């Protein structure tokens, strides 16, 4: 099982569980009552709803996808709570109806610690887009 000893451990753990498409390791990242907002603005509450949101896409359109995460910052908001911002590049494969392509998102995660284990309490994922056109952009190719 993945253990998060520090809030920033969530990046690698999230990436590892996503890339293995293992919903049990993904489940272990979250508190039971966690909230999740996906990149399309779909809000769910509770670990079962988070898994129900992700299991079907990992079995289909994202079955050959990969993530690469990069830390932006960690902001402590107490001894047992932190905000973590990180970049996430989703590399979608041939299983996706639009074919292989990359998507960059910015993730904000609130983590809390209980009994020396950090877990995600809330996560929000925002797709980078050109505000003039609404077209998705990669962060190293922003031109606005």
UniProtKB/TrEMBL annotation:
Membrane-spanning segments: none
UniProt xrefs under Gene3D superfamilies: 3.10.450.50
Protein name: SgcJ/EcaC family oxidoreductase
Pfam families assigned: DUF4440
Source species: Massilia horti
NCBIfam families: SgcJ/EcaC family oxidoreductase
InterPro entries associated with the record: DUF4440, NTF2-like_dom_sf, Steroid_delta5-4_isomerase
Domain DUF4440 span(s) in chain numbering: 11-120
Top-level taxonomic group: Bacteria
